[in-house]
What does this fold into?
Amino acid sequence: MRAGELRHLVTIQQRSVTRDDFGAESEVWTTFSQVWAKVQPLSGQELEHAQAMHSETTHKITIRYLADMTPEMRIQHDSRTLEILSIKNLDERSIQLELLCREWE
It folds into this structure.
């Protein structure tokens, strides 16, 4: 992967549950990591192929390998929130990850 392709700074967030003084739970999203990424909106044939695997896939995001990534996390990119549908360790070499995502509205 060429560093020049990773031109979008994205924030990877994980969900955590906190309790207030009265024991009520609330869900908050905290920053897991900020990384440089290649963010590609899918279109045409790519979108058709990706949606065959996961309905409503809208973006493909490529990042350097990051241990402990899970599909329960989400991506913040500019003012958009992207839900992670799947994570693929490309070539199983732990060098880069490909994330198929859909945009929350």
User: Anything to note?
Assistant: The beta strands are 8-19, 25-41, 59-64, 74-77, 80-89, 96-103. The chain has one domain: 3-103. The chain has a mean pLDDT of 86. The longest strand covers residues 25-41.
